[in-house]
Amino acid sequence: MRTRLRCLMVLCVLLLPTLVRAQRVTTGPIDEVLGRSGQKTGDVYKVSFPRSDLHVSVHGLAIKPGHALGSWAAFLGTDDNAMVMGDLVLLESELNPVIAKLRSAGFDISAVHNHLMEESPRVLYAHYMGHGPATQLAVSLSAALALSKTPLERPAAAAEEAAPAWVKAVEDAVGRKGTFKGGVLSYGVARSDAITVGGMTIPPAAGVAEGINFQAADSGNVATTGDFVLTAEEVNPVISELQGHQISVTALHSHMLTEQPRLFFMHFWSVGSPETVGGGIKAALSRVAVK
Predict the structure, then answer these.
(1) Is the whole-model pTM more than 0.70?
(2) Which end of the chain is less crowded, N or C, counting CB atoms within 10 A of the terminal residue's CB?
(3) Which CATH number fits domain 160-291: 2.40.50, 3.40.50, 3.30.70, 3.30.60?
(4) Distance (Å, whole) CA 167 – CA 215
(5) Fold that domain 24-153 belongs to in CATH
(6) From the CB of residue 143, how many other CB atoms can be counted at a distance below 10 Å?
(7) For the segment 185-221, what is each residue's pLDDT rounded down to a tens digit?
(8) Alpha carbons 76 and 85: distance in angstroms, whole number
(9) For residue 5, pLDDT beyond 50
(10) How far from 8 is each of 1, 11, 15, 268, CA to CA, in Å?
(11) 173 backbone dihedrals φ, ψ, rounded to 5°
């Protein structure tokens, strides 16, 4: 009897990871509704909707979709009890129709804000959160996106591209390896503390990592933008580091409503040499509790 009980306990331990995985959202139905596949990172399934239809520029520099024009949705939980949270990049004329549609589906709107400054055309960023069956959340999100000109057709597979020399120069200056795709070098640097909403831990991939992007600019320079995810005590030290390295602060606001600890999201912009701009980002990160 004891031997059989011991075998049963061992079997349960071996099967536990499979049982846990089975409780995560099933990605196939989400893909079918949204018309594209996402990326699975741990418990988070993130689907991106780059605003490739927009031609946004800042002082004549054309902004790549992956640099600052990426709408996204992060699903976590189970098929029957899921949460989706994310950020939508919208024109001023699209903003209120889209958030009204989300509200009619029971979504919470947690922030509406700028990201860039002096961009043309003007773009705004709407953050949202919804709870319910995963497929129904995807249906509601798709209906809201349809009220904008966000491309909803399945995107073409991105071609492999060699990283230009400026990528290594930035990585050396920042002191971290990034991900280069679509002409953009991206960083998602996880905080060292746990972030919770309603008792649920929010993984970094769901929008609570330091998000930093670089793209090529003229004359061998690079442009950087993104958002630092900060506690109250970190806000002003990071401002000082950014401004001390000629990196402009373009926005400071919340993205969520009930997170713990309370977080502030600081957006920034700079154009300069890879070494100078990358060094400024490294200095700012040194003021943040990151892994």
Answers:
(1) yes
(2) N
(3) 3.30.70
(4) 9
(5) Alpha-Beta Plaits (3.30.70)
(6) 15
(7) 999 999 999 999 988 999 999 999 999 999 999 999 9
(8) 9
(9) no
(10) 11, 5, 10, 55
(11) -70, -40
